[in-house]
Amino acid sequence: MTMTGSRVVREFSFKLNGQPVTVKAPPAYTLLETLRYVLRLTGTKDGCSSGDCGACTVLLDGRAVHSCLTLTAQVQGREVFTVEGADSRVINAFASEGAVQCGYCTPGLVMATEDLLRKNPKPSTDEIRESLRGNLCRCTGYVKIVKAVKAAAGV
Amino acid sequence: MRSLADVEVLTAETVEEALHLLGERAGSVRVLAGGTDLVVQMKHGVVEKTDLLNIYGLDELRYIRLDNAVVKIGALTDFSSIVKSPIIQRAAPVLAEACSTIGSTQILNKATIAGNIINASPAADSLPALYVLEANLRLRSRSSSRTVAVREFYKGYKKLDLRPDELLVEVFFDQLTNSHYGKFFKHGLRQGDAIAVVNGAVLIEWDETSGTVSDARVALGAVAPTVVRAEKTEEILKGGRLDKETVIRAAEAVQQSIKPIDDVRGSAAYRRELATNYVYMTLRSLAELVGR
């Protein structure tokens, strides 16, 4: 068995945006690194790398998680959705409500919104704010973001 | 921040395989569950890089069951599942309340109860609730299985009664009855996704006939190297009424059980104030709940 300190690469298979994929990556590469640097899916953003800002949010088995804290070995056999596979209703709502300024936090917010709307298709303002509390935005401001989520939900 | 590209990850397909690998590699691997603390700690160099034993795929350790009045939670159960579980909401609402404050949606979806217990932060939000529930932990190795009370599990700051070949597989506790009233409190620096400056849980058993507290359990976090039970406070509450005078005396008595420190989130003096004031407010709101 190879020990920590020498770099190993393994094959991992999982479902990505509905399609089966097999990828070669170090097992402790974060899912974020594998998405961006191996699969070249750069929609998912690296903000804090520490699970605080939510920019790297993806869906793992249908639920929002931080791809920066998920190791590639942890998604073997599971199902991942990234912003590239996101519901266009949510993306369009963010665009049409002007809930995007610099746009860096937006992919994470779109995925957190997907998680919310899957569990709760008609959320209240409080429920929206509560479920997006782990997604930090430093320039757009949250008012338009909440409006976008409401528009996506049709409430 | 360090890359983990050179970290070896062993992935177990079954609990038996995980126990076997832990036995073979005892002391040279760390167990990776949800990873929401461990991955951050390794990236930031808070813990040394070691090989990891990935147990995240062991769905057999994801369950919440009520078995003969005992609530059983599988080690890998995530906090979103605990918060919305009808069993937990009915049989241990104080645990659901505590778990809902642990972090963002993303953290709640991934972080596991066993991870919160083994990470052993004195500020862990699930722990005060598990202390007042007097929860037990089931630890397994290849050749043994034993149970340890959560209160006995912590021997000091991040010092656990856990052998390197042992895996925490289940958390269990007696369900609460209709005469139990519990509340969790947390003072964080913001409402969502913040580490507790002080947290705690209060559980009382109320005797309707005599209008007194028949049992009281109070646990406080982030005020000592481990979560502590406020024994003097419990003693004052037991057999007493929840009148204002008793509540003030009980809340002031928490000072005898805590040894807070100064750190980035708050000073020891601030924590002392918070501990008494939060226990006071929590007992007052429990008094309202029981109609006193």
From TrEMBL, chain B:
InterPro entries: CO_DH_flav_C, CO_DH_flav_C_dom_sf, Diverse_Substr_Oxidored, FAD-bd_PCMH, FAD-bd_PCMH-like_sf, FAD-bd_PCMH_sub1, FAD-bd_PCMH_sub2, Mopterin_DH_FAD-bd
TM region(s), chain numbering: none
Pfam families in the record: CO_deh_flav_C, FAD_binding_5
PROSITE patterns per record: FAD_PCMH
GO molecular function: FAD binding; oxidoreductase activity
Superkingdom of origin: Archaea
Domain FAD-binding PCMH-type as annotated: residue spans: 1-178
Protein name: Xanthine dehydrogenase family protein subunit M
Organism whose genome encodes this protein: Caldiarchaeum subterraneum
